[in-house]
Amino acid sequence: MKVTxxxxxxxxxxxxxxxxxELEQHLKSSSGASVVAIDNKIxxxxxxxxxxxxxxxxxxxxxxxxxxxxxxxxxxxxxxENTLLKTLASPEQLAQFQAQLQTGSPPSSSQSQGTTQQPAxxxxxxxxxxx
Length: 131
Description:
There is one protein chain. The chain is mostly helical. Helices cover 88% and strands 0% of the residues. The chain contains five helices and no strands. The longest helix is centred in the middle third of the chain and has 54 residues, at 35-88.
């Protein structure tokens, strides 16, 4: 996508250079009566720049919309998983987890094994909707 955009930018730049070179040659070889032609060349160049920018912006907006959609879906899935884990955890496990969050320490192997074993049975029920 970006390669195509860069190629388009390159071709637009070449077109702009040609327009400006023609304009420069026209200015050197013509009299003051060609002001209208100069204005037309300038307008063409500005239209080319405008259309290129609009194309690039539209393309970027589409990419960002898709990323936002994916992030919203992932956030929703993680919220459902979090809610399920909170309902399956015992009050002691929740207290341990809160303490670990406050101290910033990772769970020990015995604690993580205890929390992993308890929700194993109901997790098969919860894994259906998240998939």
